[in-house]
Amino acid sequence: MKLHHVGIVVNDIESGIQRYKALFGFVPVTEIVDDPIQKVSVVLLSNPESDGAPIELIAPLSDDSPVTNILKGKVRLYHLCFLVENIEESLKNFRSNGAIIISGPVPAELFEGKRIAFVYSPDNYVVELLEK
Fold first, then answer.
1. For position 124, what pLDDT does the model report?
2. pLDDT tens column, 15-35
3. Mean pLDDT, residues 29-57
4. What residue ranges do the domains of the chain occupy?
5. Helix/strand/coil (H, E, C) string of the chain?
6. Pick the CATH number of 2-131 from 3.10.180.10, 3.30.160.270, 3.40.47.10, 3.40.190.10
7. Is 123's pLDDT higher than 70?
C-alpha cells in the first residue's frame, strides 16, 4: 500500500488551484473533472520541484454532495488516498481491523474509471482506496 494523494475540500476548484499555486507552487497535473457518481468536481495538483504525494482538490457539485458538510467546518483535510492492488481484499482487511466502509467500490472519473472506495479508519479519519 502506497500513499497516492491527500484530498482537500475547497469551495471552488479554480480559486483553489490559484491559492495552492501561490502558496505552495502546486500546479494541475490533470484536467478538472466533474464526477457525477461522487457528486464532486476534482483536480490533482503537484509541485514540479517535489516528488511528494499530490493534492486532490475537491469541490461539491451540489448540496447533496458527500463533501458539502465539510465546508461548514474549519478542517478541510478530507482524506488520505492509498493505492492498493486488490480493493476487495483491502476492504476486507480494513473491515476486520475495525474500519467502517463508507462507500464503494465504484469507478472514479478522475482516475479513468479505476475503482475507489472510502472507509472510516478506527481513528476516525477518512481513507480512500484506489485500485491499481
1. 74
2. 999 998 887 888 999 999 999
3. 93
4. 2-131
5. CEEEEEEEECCCHHHHHHHHHHHHCCEECCCCEEECCCCEEEEEEECCCCCCCCEEEEEECCCCCCCHHHHHCCCCEEEEEEEECCHHHHHHHHHHCCCEEEEEEEECCCCCCCEEEEEECCCCCEEEEEEC
6. 3.10.180.10
7. no
Please, are residues 55 and 3 in contact by the beta-carbon 8 Å criterion?
A: no
Dist CA 106 CA 79 (whole Å): 17
Helices H, strands E: what count in the chain? 2, 9
Cβ-Cβ contacts under 8 Å for 94 (sequence gap 6 or more): 101, 119, 121, 127, 129
Look up residue 125 and give its amino acid: Y
Distance of CA 89 to the CA centre of its chain: 20
Nearby residues of 103 by Cβ (< 8 Å), 6 or more positions away: 66, 117, 118
Half-sphere exposure of 30 (CA within 13 A, CB side): 18
Q: Residue 126: beta bridge partners?
A: 79, 120
Q: What is the pLDDT of residue 95?
A: 93
